[in-house]
Design brief:
Helix content is about 70%, strand content about 10%. The chain is of the alpha+beta class. It has 3 domains: about 120 residues, Topoisomerase I, Chain A, domain 4 (Orthogonal Bundle); about 70 residues, Gyrase A, domain 2, CATH 3.30.1360; about 70 residues.
């Protein structure tokens, strides 16, 4: 019996479908988690971590007020909890080189910030790498836990060795495929964050970049072919419309000619 057909047709075990579904969920969770990482948020993170000394005690800005960027990533709003600290915090921010202002009577300090530095972007890239590695570890745990369950099922003779082999092979194939997809998603995110600063630092980055470039080329080719087909269809439709117009004119001309001939014939009679 062909092994591929056996694997696809086998319905006697539920271990691999569950494991693969869990892996797919892990991939989805990972992709969603990366949406939280935005280059424009780098400045907010830096601001929250800035420390100034109040009454002899170092305090982070995040402890003194709420740091947000609601409208423009280059404009930060800092709402100070204690109005008595506004002047001191405002001077501290200005002394750190950031243009800042506070309207009289307002608890908000408005700060203009530069674009994230290369170092800040690289820190975000490192965070993507950490999350990628964590997500890949999660896949391995799913495989390991399912493998232990399959072994226990064999020992209790719930499934035989052949079914066990089929299930493990399915899981291995899924692990390889989804791990690769996770790394691709991670590299794409790093490239979007770092832009021209992106460089291959992980062991398999170079290979993944080749896969990404191939996918981009295939997508461009697909779009190009779709556009070419659309243009051909539009040209063909225009041609058919022109032919229809010509045929209608010929019919109208023939009908008019026939009518004229009938009129002449009637007049002669």
């Amino acid at each position: 019996m062909d092994e591929g057909n056996y694997i696809s047709a086998n319905l006697d075990e539920g271990y691999s479908p569950e494991a693969i579904a869990n892996m797919e969920n892990a991939l989805e969770d990972f992709a969603v988690s990366l949406t939280e990482i935005k280059p424009e948020d780098a400045n907010i993170a830096v601001f929250r971590g800035l420390k100034l000394t109040l009454k002899g005690r170092p305090r982070r800005l995040a402890e003194l007020g709420n740091v947000e960027s609601p409208d423009d990533p280059m404009k930060i709003e800092l709402m100070i909890y204690n109005k008595e600290q506004i002047e001191e915090v405002l001077n501290f921010i200005k002394n750190n080189g950031f243009p800042a202002k506070n309207e009289p009577g307002s608890q908000f300090i408005h700060i203009r910030v530069p674009k994230p530095s290369r170092m800040q972007l690289e820190e975000l890239g490192d965070e993507v790498i950490r999350r990628t590695n964590t997500a890949c570890t999660r896949l391995m745990k799913i495989k390991t836990n399912t493998g232990l369950r399959i072994r226990a099922a064999m020992e209790k003779e719930y499934i035989d060795q052949r079914i066990s082999g089929v299930a493990l092979k399915k899981i291995d194939n899924a692990l390889e495929r989804i791990t690769k997809e996770m790394k691709i998603v991670g590299v794409i995110k790093r490239k979007s964050i770092l832009g021209s600063f992106f460089k291959t630092i992980e062991r398999d980055d170079a290979d993944i970049i080749k896969v990404i470039n191939k996918r981009i080329k295939l997508e461009k080719d697909k779009i190009s072919k779709e556009q070419e087909l659309r243009i051909k269809n539009e040209a063909l439709e225009e041609q058919n419309q022109s032919i229809d117009k010509i045929e209608n004119k010929i019919i109208e001309s023939n009908e008019l000619k026939t009518a004229n001939e009938l009129n002449i014939s009637t007049n002669v009679s």
